[in-house]
Amino acid sequence: MSYDALNALLSARHSCRAFRPDPVPREQIEQILSAAQRVPSWCNAQPWEVIITSGSETDSFREALQHEVATGAPKPDLPFPSAYTGVYQDRRRTCGWALYEAVGVEKGDRAGSARQMMQNFALFGAPHCAILHSPADLGPYGAMDTGGYVTAFTLAAQALGVATIPQAAVASYGPFLHRYFDIPQDRLILCAISFGYSAPDHPANGFRTERAGIGETVTWRG
Ligand SMILES: Cc1cc2nc3c(=O)[nH]c(=O)nc-3n(C[C@H](O)[C@H](O)[C@H](O)COP(=O)(O)O)c2cc1C
């Protein structure tokens, strides 16, 4: 594969926040999963495990998750960032505002932004959800390896015309997810990836995020 082809794939992938209900054929999901398995991991431990929901299982999960959000309290297995400051706060705000502008939520409209946030727990209407977990013993390194898996999953999906969105928001309800999916306590639930076919004309899909130039992230020595 050429650099240009890879770069085109990386540039085409984006997080999808409105899906059509049609399911992705099992064979294509297996292709995505097989490709994602190729990522590197420390000691080749391949610590990720994935639960994939389809059909009525996705709908039941969506309903149960929304009920949990309405009645329970967030408690992620992996503590959420304590603060976004400086340039990280700026980038976070920029992407949040781009989303709210796209869906017509004005600055200061807390009810509107909360409504959009709640779409996370409706899985943005996706027909499938992947729940990703790794061994607690591997700590942040299991999470790091699984981060690579998330990237490969989303790119392989993009190559097949399947839209994705990684979601930390879903992982904020750790104890519920452990119970619901019978995930042992010695595993950390890291994130979800909702996926399916994009509803491209939906306003929530009407913006793209930017990236810093390498001048902001790289220090050259020598
Ligand atoms: C680990 C991870 C967790 C994320 N969690 C959420 C989430 O809970 N809700 C959401 O709307 N987007 C989530 N995103 C998507 C990011 O906001 C998105 O990747 C970022 O803004 C860059 O935009 P792009 O994916 O369209 O290129 C997550 C992305 C990653 C990698």
Automatic annotation (TrEMBL):
SUPFAM superfamilies: FMN-dependent nitroreductase-like (SSF55469)
Coiled coil: none
Gene3D superfamilies membership: NADH Oxidase (3.40.109.10)
Keyword Transmembrane helix attributed: no
UniProt EC number: 1.6.99.3
Origin: domain of life: Bacteria
Keyword Flavoprotein: yes
InterPro entries: Nitroreductase, Nitroreductase-like, Nitroreductase/BluB
Broad enzyme group: oxidoreductase
Residue ranges of domain Nitroreductase in the record: 11-197
Keyword terms, alphabetized: Flavoprotein, FMN, Oxidoreductase
Entry's Gene Ontology molecular function annotations: oxidoreductase activity
Protein name stated in the entry: NADH dehydrogenase
The organism of origin for this protein: Falsiruegeria litorea R37
